[in-house]
Hints:
Layout: H1 3-6, H2 14-36, H3 38-42, H4 48-67, H5 78-98, H6 104-131, H7 140-148, H8 163-184
Helix pairs in contact: 2-6, 2-8, 4-5, 4-6, 5-6
Amino acid sequence: MTxxxxxxxxxxGLASRAGKLVVGGLQxxxxxxxxxxxLYLREGRWDSGLWLFVIxxxxxxxxxxxxxxxxxxxxxxxxxxxxxxxxxVLIGIEAIRSGSAWAPPVTASILALTVYVHLxxxxxxxxxxxxxxxxxxxxxxxxYLSRWFGDGSVDLHLCPGWWTPLDRWEARWRxxxxxxxxxxxx
Length: 186
């Protein structure tokens, strides 16, 4: 068991639900932008915003792999290093084959990984926001699939990102407001 599985999960607050909705929407909009501009991207015409989207996908990949599947895997940053190594091999092959490191297989690999990560997390963020599920959005899809198929074997866990601290802050804030409001009415 990991630290995120041992601690109590705070209830999803309005602030984190709104944040998840916004972040999920931005991720899905980014994926739509990749699809709309795929012909320009194949030619290597990338703007800085897309590069930030790609860098975020590579950074988020280990979290998606370690948390987003049925079981919590303890692979650490290995998915990142594996994907970067594979990308390096593709770049090397293309550099030898065509004399240019930037080629359609490299572009396609980068875009496929980027779209997968952000599509997975975008749908997960929105689903977690709409349903108000407690815990990490990365486990929301396997959680609901396990419930749908009657298995019920997937448990939720704390978010290693910023949603759990935000939920804890909101719970403390609400408790403080309730204590102040409850004390003044008596």
